[in-house]
Amino acid sequence: MRSFRILLFPFSLVYGAIVIIRNYLFDKGFLKSTGFNIPIIGVGNLSVGGTGKSPMVEYLIGLLKDRYAIATLSRGYKRRTTGYILATEQTTAIEIGDEPMQFHIKHPEIAVAVGEQRIEAVPQLLYDRPEIKTIILDDAYQHRSIIAGLNILLTEFSNLYANDFFLPTGDLRDQKDSAKRADIIIVTKCKAGMHESEQSKVRNILQPLPHQHLFFTSIRYGLPYHIIDRSNRHLNRNTEVLLVCGIANPEPLKKYLQDETKSYDAMYYDDHHIFSFDDLKEIRKRFNSISHEEKIIVTTEKDAVRLIKFKEELQALPLYVLPITVSFLFNRAMAFNDLVVNFIESYKTGDHIQPE
User: In angstroms, rounded to a whole number, what is the distance separating the alpha carbons of residues 44 and 142?
Assistant: First the structure.
């Protein structure tokens, strides 16, 4: 696979040239960026694939939702609708996409909206929900038509943007220099016991600017809960697991199951896969083929929002959802929280420089 991607190097040069020209046009003002008189937090990355945007957005939701009226605005990747949609009680993942649906289910008290043209979606969202005081833009680092007052850039520990190259040879969808626009850089999916020497090594590779704040996070898995009745189930070394997932990077999850269970089988699907009845039949068939008595099916929260439509069929199936949260390393959670809250509070005092 790697050798094949190297053969695509000429296409990477063309793609990279287009990206660089686009950024130049924004930097010089030939393409316009618009600001809004409200705190907007942008969360994104420079690469394709799973850098942990959804867990970080959820972390921000948990941090802010009891302090402010907040909203999330996403593109709604791979949904089967177009245009602006504000989630309601009747909304499905097909209409707004996996991640927004996940936010909506877990945090029904906040506004969750999608829209490809976010420059048009922001005013509509503020019209629909005028009480909103803060907007979190999900996966919006390259969406430069909107000025985010606080830009949070994520990069995966095992695939740092500084060591990467443009698509399709590498995984970069933006140029490395775009990292200079970040206020906060977060290295995600680090080992929980990461040593300070590794932190220093990564810092030397990324070389953050003096004004940029660098953080390191790891994934923390929670207690699995049944997809329908939400009853909890502990994993142990006597449990055999059938993993069902369609996510960009399942490696951390595979490693976790290897460490925590007796053994596991796996059924992998494309990222954002829309599950069918045939898929459900195959899942049940594979699960029934496991002879061990203590066995369960495990899936991710992203996949769960696409499986929940089979509610009646899943009632009797031991299908458990494994939640994940972000854990800041080196006792830096409070420092990150303060940066985010102080950014929002600066709008109240007028200390923040309003975007043009």
Answer: 8
Per residue in 111-147, pLDDT (tens digit) is 999 999 999 999 999 999 999 999 999 998 988 999 9
Q: Which of 106, 127, 131, 130 is nearest to 115 (CA)?
A: 127
In the chain, which residues have pLDDT < 70? 1-3, 349-356
Claim to verify: residue 159 and residue 214 sit in the same structural domain: yes
Which pairing describes strands 134-138 and 184-188: parallel, antiparallel, or unpaired?
Answer: unpaired
Side chain identity at residue 155, one-letter code:
T
pTM over 0.90: yes
Instruction: For tokens 């195959």, name the residue.
Output: 282
Beta carbons of 318 and 222 less than 8 angstroms apart: no
CATH of the domain at 247: 3.40.50
Domain range holding 273?
223-322
301 and 274 both lie in a single domain: yes
Integer CA distances (angstroms), 182 to 4, 61, 99, 148, 292, in order: 32, 20, 23, 10, 49
Count of domains for the chain: 2
| Angle, vertex CA 97, rays to CA 93 and CA 102, nearest 5 | 70
pLDDT of residue 334: 98
pLDDT of residue 6: 85
Parallel/antiparallel/unpaired status of strands 111-114 and 70-74: parallel
For 74, 109, 271, the CA distances from 70, given in Å and listed in that order, are: 13, 9, 28
The reported pLDDT for the residue numbered 351 is 63
Please tell me the distance from the alpha carbon of residue 134 to that of residue 253, in angstroms, as a whole number: 32
